[in-house]
Fold these 4 entries.
Entry 1:
Amino acid sequence: LVHLLDLLPQPALLACRARFFVALDVELEGETTLDAGEDLEVVLAHPEEVDRMIEDGRIHNAMTVMAVKLAQEAGHLRGKK
């Protein structure tokens, strides 16, 4: 697990911190167990496909796009910089 960066997403409105990490050499081994109120979808994709998913709008959450771009810039994912 590699720490990429900490950011304050909306410091004028919220007192929260976003911490960005990339997990390397992982495999999906079972079903995801979510806490009450969590809404999460696990999608397996090659790094090159993730760029296309951002470009065509399938990935449109700003925090997710930021995490992908940070991981790419740090050299942890192949794909466009």
Entry 2:
Amino acid sequence: HSIHALEVEDVVRQAGVSRGTFYKYFPSIPGLYGALSRQLMLEVAAMMEDLVPHGVGCMLMKVIAQQMSHLSQRNCVFRRS
């Protein structure tokens, strides 16, 4: 299965929740992707705090976050190439 073909029904079936529950937390499949991307960024930032000197890690995360924000505003984060 491709993430490009993912539908809300696929997510709710796999998660064992209703469509209403899905839409309570996410406005759409791209909204779900955005939330997953943000969560991943938070986890990467937490790991970087332990591995990289503070100033450098913060600078890298700021650049990455800006790029992710720019891509998500253009709705390109998970678009097929």
Entry 3:
Amino acid sequence: MHEVKAGFTFILSLAFILILSTITHGQYFNCIEVDEDGDIRLEWSAPVPQSEFGSYQVYRKNDTGNFSLVHTIDDFDETDWVDSQSNGEFKSYTYFIRTQTSQGTLDSDTLSSIY
């Protein structure tokens, strides 16, 4: 009987860790919008506590289909950025945010602008 209970406890513990990890480090890329000048504004929320934060890195997909680093932010509270070099009124762009933390890196989902 103890072996079944121990196995069940292990499964519950593992499920709790997976759920907690999803809540703590879940999707955090909130918004992407194109203004009338073609600038693309990105907004996100911090996926980790400030004590674990290192930097935010903004990546944009280039014409060859690869993502390139376009901007780095070292301020924890700065959770938006405007890509003023994009001409977003003529073309769709895809982005993701990489957060450097004391535990490694976290990547957001990708979001694409619509023109």
Entry 4:
Amino acid sequence: MRFQLTSFRTLRAPISPISFAQRLRYARTPNGRAFETKSIRLRQRRHSDAEDTEAREKQDKLLLALTSQGFKKAEAKKATEKLAGEARILSLEELLRRALGLLVPR
């Protein structure tokens, strides 16, 4: 076994990486499940953060565009919240068209 020098006075053996089977066994315990689900959620959040920031920027720009066109902030906010799910997919121009369709009666 090789030892690592961690400081001038202490030597300790290197920690071996956990095998896949050990991780599976640990994941089946109650504490392991909580840890695994937490780490999975963190990974998913990191992955979706880029998309979420882009969608939030579109919503902010849409809110600004609607308020600059003379709509009340509360009305514009309701329209942007209704279109929040589509903000990832649609362009800003299409979001503005749909928001105007919601706000302006025909």
